[in-house]
Design goal:
With 192 residues, the protein is α/β, with parallel strands linked by helices. The chain has one domain: Flavodoxin domain (Rossmann fold). 40% of the residues lie in helices and 22% in strands. The strands form two sheets. Strands 2-1-3-6-7 form a five-stranded parallel sheet, sandwiched between helices. It has a two-stranded antiparallel ribbon with strand order 4-5. Helix 1 packs parallel to helix 6. The chain starts with a strand and ends with a helix. The protein binds flavin mononucleotide. Belongs to the azoreductase type 1 family.
Amino acid sequence: MKLLHIDSSALGANSASRELSAAIVARWQAQVPGLSIEYRDLDADPLPHLDGATLAGADTGAAAESERVLQQFLDADIVVLGAPMYNFSIPSTLKAWIDRIAVAGRTFRYTADGPEGLAGNKQVIVASARGGLHGDGPSDFQEPYLRFLFGFLGITGLQFVRAEGLGLSPQHRSEALAAARAAIAKPLAEAA
Ligand SMILES: Cc1cc2nc3c(=O)[nH]c(=O)nc-3n(C[C@H](O)[C@H](O)[C@H](O)COP(=O)(O)O)c2cc1C
């Protein structure tokens, strides 16, 4: 079994989503002997914005890297994503990764009956961290975006572990992180 672990926080060791995504991966590792894990830190090792030369294949090096990122996603049985809220959405580094994995004919296709996801054979678990309190309210363009995107790619096994209100006070932060850690300690299906 293959697990792909992606982090995108720019806050390094102070990152809540990094802490939570690592805890989710550790839980899978404890459960699945011989689990193969690949990791990409999109802050330390970012992908460039998707551009015309990459799309057209004119920049062969960039096109090859895009293909490698797509294949790594396709090969994964489990994807664990550290996804902070930045400006009500996701970090641009994570968006650049998504631009490599949402590819017509590979992870989705358009049919006469509408779009069809082609990447349904995997679970995606998102460690979501946000400074304010958004709940499922109208200021949240982070979790609904990821939910729609992965649904569009055919993924039904999508779960979120959320820690929010992290910027309100140190007490809020420690309580929110403790609740998220407790959710991860339970079977993740219950935590969703
Ligand atoms: C560039 C930037 C933009 C942010 N935008 C928002 C925002 O729109 N709403 C919010 O609630 N928190 C926002 N925050 C706070 C982060 O969501 C919060 O620090 C969270 O813990 C980030 O995840 P991390 O700890 O894994 O880096 C922002 C933080 C940064 C650095």
